[in-house]
C-alpha cells in the first residue's frame, strides 16, 4: 500500500464571462423615442416618407422591446402617461395621428402606415392590438377631435383585418359607458367600418368574437334598451346597425323563449300554462305566430333524446307528439301551418333517422287538427323547400291523393245537397 498522501478535492471559484445576449438590458425608451421623434419631424406630414422611415428604422431600433413607445408616438406624438395625457418630460413630435386632419381620407392614409409597418414586422401585431385596447381605455383623456380620429382609424383597421373586433371590449368600461363616451366613439367607429366594408362584414366580425349580442352595453343600464339604441344610432345615420342590433335582440329573445319552453316541458307544466306564458312572451317581444310555431316545434323536438335506430324513432316520435296541443295553439293561421310543415321537412332532412318518418308525423298532426288539408295540399304543390323534396313528396303522394279525393267527394255532396 502506498504511503503517498491522497490530495482531497477542493472547490475553487471560476468566473464565466457573461455572453452579451444574456445580459439584461435596462428598459430605457428615451433614446428610442428621441430617434423616432427626430425621424418623424424630418419626414413631416408626408406619410409615404413616414412609412419608409419606419420600415428602415426597424432594422436598427428595437421595435419588439419598445413597441408601446413606438405606437404612442405615432398616435399621440409622445409617450402616454396612465389616463391618456402626454408625459411632460419627454420629447414630442407634432406629426402624429392626433394632430392630423380630421377626415376619412387622412385616417385611411394613416391606416396604411400602420398596415405597412405591421406587415413588415409581424411581431408587432399583438403589441399593436394591445395598444388600441389601451387607447380606448384612455378615451376620456383625449379631446373630442382626437377621439374622432382614433374612432375612424379603428374602424378602418377593423375593416382591413389589422385588429380583431375583441378590442371593442375596452368600450364596455363602466366609466366610459356612464359618461356617454363609448356610444359617441362607436358612432364614428362603425361609420368608418361600414364605409370600408358593409354591415354583413361587420356583423360577421362581431359574431366571431361574441360581440353581436353586446351592442346595447354601450349604454348605461337605465338606457340599455333596443328602442334607445335604435333611435340613437338611426339619428346618427347608422340605421343598418340599428336594424342589426334589433335583429340580434330578437334572436336572443327567441333563444330565451325556447329555453323556457323546454324547461316548462321538463317540469311537466300544464299545456294551458305553457300556452299562456308563451303568448305573453309573444306580445312582450312582438313575436309573430309564424315565428312562434317555429320556436315551439324546435323546443318540442329538442326536448327529448331521440333513438338513433330508424325503425324505432318513428314510434318514439308519435308518442312524443303528445305535445300537439302546443303546436295547435300557434297554428291558427294558414301561414303558420305552412311554416310548421317547412320546419318539419327541414328537421326530417337534417336528422337523417327521421327521413322515413315525415309522412307519419304529418298524418298524426292532421288527425290532431294541427294541420289542415288546405295547408298540406299547398305545401305539396308549391310551398315545400328543396331539402329532401323528392323523398318527402313521394312519401306524401298517396296521402295527398286521399285528401284530394276526400275534398272532391265533399264538394260533390254539397252540390247534391243544394
Number of helical stretches of at least 4 residues: 19
Overall helicity: 55-70%
Distance between the termini: 140 Å
The profile of the biggest β sheet is:
none
Report the sheet-strand fraction: under 5%
Computed structural class:
mainly alpha
Calculate Rg over CA atoms.
Answer: 34 Å
Strand segment tally:
0
Q: SSE order, as H and E?
A: HHHHHHHHHHHHHHHHHHH
Poorly predicted regions are none
Shape: elongated
User: On the 0-100 scale, what is the average pLDDT?
Assistant: 88
Keywords: Activator, Transcription, Transcription regulation, Translation regulation
Organism: Salvelinus namaycush
Family: Belongs to the BZW family.
Protein name: Basic leucine zipper and W2 domain-containing protein 1-A-like isoform X2
What would your notes on this structure say?
- The protein is mostly helical and 418 residues long.
- The protein contains 19 helices and no strands.
- Helix 3 (67-76) crosses helix 5 (124-137) and helix 10 packs antiparallel against helix 11.
- The radius of gyration is 34 Å and the shape is elongated.
- The mean pLDDT is 88.
Descriptive labels:
single chain; 64% helix; 19 helices; activator; translation regulation; mainly alpha; 418 residues; 0% strand
